[in-house]
Design brief:
Blueprint lengths: L15 E5 L3 E2 L5 E2 L2 E8 L9 E5 L38 E5 L31 H14 L7 E5 L1 H12 L6 E5 L7 H15 L9 H4 L4 H15 L2 H7 L19 H14 L4 H13 L10 H4 L6 E7 L7 H13 L4 E6 L13 H14 L2
Parallel strand pairs: 5-6, 5-7, 7-8, 8-9, 9-10
Antiparallel strand pairs: 1-4, 2-3, 4-6
Length: 379
């Protein structure tokens, strides 16, 4: 490993592509005749294929969860604080698989991919996906990798929903489910935030009904606004106050509606600008709809305990005190349902000021508890 990388880094990693030619039926009633999933792996699969851990990403996540793509990279994968030698998901003990979900915009088949029927980008014609669809596609990837049962399926936020769905859809294919800062379904307020973000994209003149690629443009303003709205909900009031307060960009107020007066305005505009240059608008619409539609208890009369009656995995549920997007109360709903169903569950509520984004931040108590749970399941 090059000396430029920290000792606890997985070092250089190379994305891989799994191609599937068997049609994938989808919850919306359509199917994908063929598709590709981009993924990365860290660590070594043991001789019994019993040490594999699946990482499920959140809304804007992807397959690059740890390590570096080149020696020139300054920024590692999005969950590098949790994955690597000596970290909670210890790659000296686990074989870790992280993928870009179907419908994504980081290499897996999605709206920006070429439709083999038309020879043009799918764009608006790409089917709406659900969390359950993702889990079925991930199960096929596990088959391809020779993994009959995951040691654990782990995810935060939307990733935690996928971990929960894994335990429901494939109870014998995982031993542990780790769901962090997640929920059994979205609240009306959460769905409302997602709808505002979608409308920002849909109303952008450059969206062109989802076929903006064919026009050679991107709905940049809509994506910027969607990201700005989302980013506000990922942070707590305390963390925003601590980072920015009411600090001004300059001593002189411009007294107009176009200038950036406050530091928090500058921060949000930067986040929106950066996001609009790397994320696909149609993928954003798909991901938020998958969030909205996730409600596994709906098939069991809204009885979550009944929904979880068939799971066999042990559960680790974690939440953060200032997370108002996926509040601790939502995690406790999962815990209460598991207890009612007489399942094994550990729960930790971490006192942290960072809001929903806390699951991505190396908070010592969080990482310590995470590591202790993962140490229990390592073989």
């Amino acid at each position: 490993m090059p000396t430029a990388f920290p000792d606890d880094s997985v070092g250089l990693v190379t994305p891989q592509v799994a191609r599937f030619s068997e049609p994938l039926p989808l919850a919306c009633g359509r199917s994908l005749a063929s598709y590709e999933l981009v993924y990365e792996t860290y660590g070594q699969l043991n001789s019994t294929a019993s040490n594999a851990v699946l990482i499920c990403h959140a809304l804007s996540g992807h397959h690059h969860a740890a390590g570096f793509h080149s020696e020139a990279d300054r920024k590692p994968g999005w969950w590098d604080s949790a994955i690597g030698p000596g970290k909670p998901i210890d790659t000296r003990r686990f074989f870790v698989v992280a993928l870009n979900n179907l419908g994504g915009c980081n290499g897996s088949t999605g709206p920006g991919s070429t439709d083999p029927v038309t020879g043009k980008p799918f764009g608006a014609t790409f089917p709406v996906l659900t969390v359950e669809d993702w889990v079925h596609s991930q199960a096929r990837l596990a088959d391809r990798l020779g993994i009959k049962q995951w040691a654990a399926v782990v995810g935060g936020s939307l990733g935690g929903m996928q971990a929960l769905q894994w335990a429901i859809s494939y109870p014998d294919r995982l031993r542990h489910c780790v769901a962090i800062a997640s929920a059994p379904k979205l609240s009306a307020q959460n769905i409302a935030f997602n709808e505002v973000a979608r409308q920002a994209i849909l109303s952008d003149p450059e969206f062109h009904g989802g076929d903006f690629q064919a026009e050679g443009v991107i709905p940049k303003r809509g994506l910027m606004l969607a990201r700005m709205v989302g980013h506000i909900t990922y942070l707590s009031d305390d963390s925003m106050g601590e980072k920015f307060g009411r600090e001004l960009k300059s001593d002189q107020l411009a007294y107009d509606f176009h200038s950036v007066a406050f530091q928090v305005e500058s921060y949000l505009r930067y986040q929106g600008e950066e996001f609009s240059g790397r994320f696909d608008a149609n993928t954003y619409l798909l991901m938020t709809k998958a969030l909205d539609y996730f409600d596994p208890a709906a098939a069991h009369g809204d009885d979550l305990a009944k929904t979880l009656s068939g799971v066999t995995a042990d559960f680790c549920i974690m939440s953060f005190t200032t997370d108002w997007r996926f509040s601790p109360a939502r995690s406790r709903e999962i815990v209460d349902a598991l207890m009612a169903a007489r399942k094994s569950v550990s729960y930790l509520e971490i006192d942290a000021p960072q809001g929903h984004d806390a699951f991505l931040i190396p908070i010592p108590r969080y990482l310590q508890a995470f590591a202790r749970y993962m140490n229990r399941i390592a073989i």
